[in-house]
Amino acid sequence: MNIGHIPLTNNLFVAPMAGVTDRPFRQWCKRLGAGYAVSEMVTSRRELWTSLKTSRRANHDGEVEPIAVQIAGTDPLMMAEAAAYNIDRGAQIIDINMGCPAKKVCNVWAGSALMQNEPLALAIIGAVVAVCEPRRVPVTLKMRTGWCHDERNALVLARAAESAGIAMVTVHGRTREQGYKGLAEYDTIAAVKAALRIPVVANGDIDSPEKAREVLRYTGADALMIGRAAQGRPWIFREIAHFLATGEHLLPTPVAQVRQWLLEHLLDHYSLYGERAGVRTARKHIGWAVRSLPGGEAFRTGMNRLETCKEQIRAVGDFLDELADRQALWPAIAPGSAQERAATIASTPCDASIAAANQASIRLTA
Ligand SMILES: Cc1cc2nc3c(=O)[nH]c(=O)nc-3n(C[C@H](O)[C@H](O)[C@H](O)COP(=O)(O)O)c2cc1C
Fold first, then answer.
1. Which residue, among 204, 205, 331, 230, has the nearest Cα to 285 in the 3D structure?
2. Which residue ranges of the chain lie beneath pLDDT 70?
3. Is the dihedral of CA 332, 333, 335, 339 positive or negative?
4. Element spanning 42, H or E
5. How far apart are the C-alpha atoms of 320 and 110, rounded to whole Å?
6. Does the C-beta of 203 come closer than 6 Å to ligand 1?
7. Average pLDDT over the chain, rounded to whole?
8. Hey, what long-range contacts does 202-206 have (CB within 8 A, 24 or more apart)?
């Protein structure tokens, strides 16, 4: 598939996750089967662009193209300036954040709060598209289904966004009110897909090859975006890609292979953050990777006390060496996988008439 004129290698995307999808993690996912990755959100507040946090977020050194940067903010002019600033630093695609539920973001009317104010949302889209179009940079939009259950306006906003020049829409199947609770729903995503000509990406709770196939089938979406299930398991992209292509599961990955990938990721991570910050911020990635392993929790507790790259690398290497002596293969599927959620979707009939009924049942706020 393409985003605007830009071709992608496949339709499996890494979700933008602040504090997670930094350049090393995006690289790791792309190496292991993701066709596309978006940066963590970058603020539109000019005074913060030179801060260490934002400049790390804007780091794309050696990143496999296309380079996509997500911007967040509330003011159309500032958002347009942020888009131009990031294009000058290598962004080839600009994504507008209308999906983040964080209070810090929503209290200032950014992120998913913008879905409550359609005129402002469209003014932002218009301003960003106006600055990106002449530079041949496609603009994409990430949103939720709406603000709350009774205000699910994703369809209205997606239609208007398409008319305003947006090149692709991603919908996380939850409202702002839900945060990350409950289950993602896919009817709204199916309705958006049915109404738009531009690519539509389904997001929310996709955490196994079966669930991926089911969400694609149910929504008819052009692509899937995966967030939390890729934490500590970026090879989920190749597992899903293989399953979608063949209908069969990829053979489980050898522990020795994961050990090598994880150590390489840690070295890349330290190269971006340096030793002090790098050791601390790497802990969550290691913790996620080992959480499904026997002894993983105890290892994580001990590892969190280590302060140097050398100690951290050695501890991870030794732990996985010992594991490899006991079991050759990494557990095939992460705990908490969505097998039963896949069954839930499958039990709901999906055809054109149901999709139409779903569309009608969505309260349109325009
Ligand atoms: C730690 C974390 C940080 C996130 N940061 C962002 C962000 O910066 N921008 C954004 O659009 N969504 C953000 N999200 C939402 C994800 O992109 C995604 O929509 C959500 O996690 C649902 O997908 P999943 O069920 O596959 O995790 C974040 C989610 C998590 C868990």
1. 230
2. 103-109, 333-366
3. negative
4. strand 36-43
5. 42
6. yes
7. 89
8. 202/170, 202/171, 202/173, 203/15, 203/142, 203/170, 203/171, 203/172, 203/173, 203/227, 204/172, 204/173, 204/174, 205/173, 205/338, 205/341, 206/338
C-alpha pair distances (Å), 158 with each of 68, 92, 96, 197, 317 = 20, 22, 12, 11, 47
Q: Measure 183 CA to ligand 1 centroid, in angstroms.
A: 14
Angle between helices 255-290 and 309-326 (to 10 degrees): 120
Give the closest residue (by CA) to ligand 1 atom 2. Answer: 17
- Residue 55 is predicted with a pLDDT of 81
**C-beta 269 within 6 A of ligand 1:** no
Helices 187-195 and 352-361 pack at an angle, to 10 degrees, of 100
Q: Which atom of ligand 1 is nearest to the CA of 142?
A: 11
What's the gap in Å between 318 CA and the centre of ligand 1? Answer: 32
What is the distance between the alpha carbons of residues 354 and 362, in angstroms, rounded to a whole number?
12
**Does the CB atom of residue 33 touch ligand 1 within 6 A?**
no
**C-alpha 353 to ligand 1 mean position (Å):** 31
User: Could you tell me which of 85, 96, 220, 265 has the C-alpha nearest to residue 166?
Assistant: 96
**For the whole model, what pTM was predicted?**
0.90
Contact call for residues 137 and 87 (beta carbons, < 8 A): yes
Q: How far apart are CA 31 and CA 37, in angstroms?
A: 11
What is the DSSP track for 163-189?
A: HTT--EEEEEEEETTTTT-S----HHH
Active site residue 100: yes
β-partners of residue 140 are 95, 168
Question: Which amino acid is it at 163?
Answer: S
Catalytic residue (choose from 100, 132, 309, 350): 100
